[in-house]
Amino acid sequence: MFELKTIGLFILTAVAEILGCYLPYLWLREGKTIWLLIPAAASLALFAWLLSLHPTAAGRVYAAYGGVYISVAILWLWAVDGIRPTVWDLLGSAVALLGMAIIMFAPRPG
Question: Which of 10, 55, 93, 94 is deepest in the core (most CB within 10 A)?
Answer without folding.
Answer: 10
